[in-house]
Amino acid sequence: MNARAEAALLTHAQPELRAQAHPEPVLSNAHLDALEEEAVFILREVAAAFERSVLLFSGGTDSLVLLKCAEKAFVDSQRGSRIPYPLVMIDTGQNFHELTDFLDKRALQLGADLIVRSVEDSMQRGTVRLAHAGESRNVHQSFTLLEAIEEHRFDALISGARRDEEKARAKERIFSHRDAFGQGQPKDQRPELWSLFNTRLQPGEHLRVFPISNWTELDVWQYIERENIALPSLYYAHRRQVVERKGLLCR
After folding, report:
1. Does residue 113 form part of some domain?
2. Is 27 within a domain?
3. 163 is in which domain, residue-wise?
4. CATH value at residue 162
5. Three-state secondary structure call for residue 234
6. Which of 30, 90, 187, 228 has its CB 3.0 to 4.6 Å from that of 141, i.e. a possible disulfide?
7. Integer CA distances (angstroms), 194 to 22, 34, 178, 189, 198, in order
8. Secondary structure (H, E, C), 123-188
């Protein structure tokens, strides 16, 4: 039977036969199991190798996926086990109350300790200075984070950063070394052959750990859908009050 005859038959075939001949494309998420397994392995490796590790928790999609992986890695309701390291949130003082309420709720649900440090406190100490009153405080969160690291002597900070976000992230290892000033140099990054991680540190140094470094934006959203992960209400459309500032509508 030639192609022209086949096309003619399909044209007059029953709808169910045409559906079998041209099935609807389905987006597979089978690879998420491998990504999740890798993240769980890294999270457990951090818990075993470090004494003062923390999980950075902002309430964004990446940190929520990371928190879900940590829940699967450690939380067992029957045994009463919980995430072995605290959650750390850097508050800019300009966060939406829906976000902060959500963070408190999730930490309470998991029985996890939540450490909050504020950019406003850094401003009062003089370690953070804004160029003008309307400047975004997001870029200054790193200074407040470094102060928290020094205060609590954290040796490993688990973050939801991914390699596909920007060029700078693409240079990061999964266990990314930071010096005593909190800076990371690409030439100082350590090899990670066969998923073997060098966790040795000198006094004052720490590691940034990125368990979902190999995930993409699509992977994150597919995982959120598959695991039915709750999101802050800010991610959904709803009416809200806004003000006009420099030609922009801001909340």
Report:
1. yes
2. no
3. 38-232
4. 3.40.50.620
5. helix
6. 90
7. 42, 15, 22, 16, 12
8. HHHCCCCCCCCCCCCHHHHHHHHHHHHHHHCCCEEECCCCCCCCHHHHCCCCEEEECCCCCCCHHH
CB 39 within 8 A of CB 223: no
Lookup: tokens for 143: 């200074």
Residue 153's identity, in one-letter code, is R
| Cβ-contact 3, 172 below 8 angstroms | no
CA distance 163 to 67: 18
Distance CA 158, CA 57 (A): 9
What one-letter code names the amino acid at 82?
R
Calpha distance 209→44 (Å, rounded) = 12
Query: What pTM does this model have?
Result: 0.82
Work out whether strand 248-250 and strand 243-245 pair parallel, antiparallel, or are unpaired.
antiparallel
Asked if residue 215 is part of any domain, the answer here is: yes
Predicted pLDDT of residue 22: 65
pLDDT reported for residue 18: 56
pLDDT single digits (tens) 167-195: 777 778 889 888 877 787 777 777 878 88
Residue-level pLDDT at 17: 54
The answer to whether position 2 is within a domain reads no
Give the pLDDT score at 21.
Answer: 61
Tokens of 237: 């459309």
**What is the per-residue pLDDT for 234?**
84
Identify the segments of the chain with pLDDT beneath 50.
1-5, 7-11
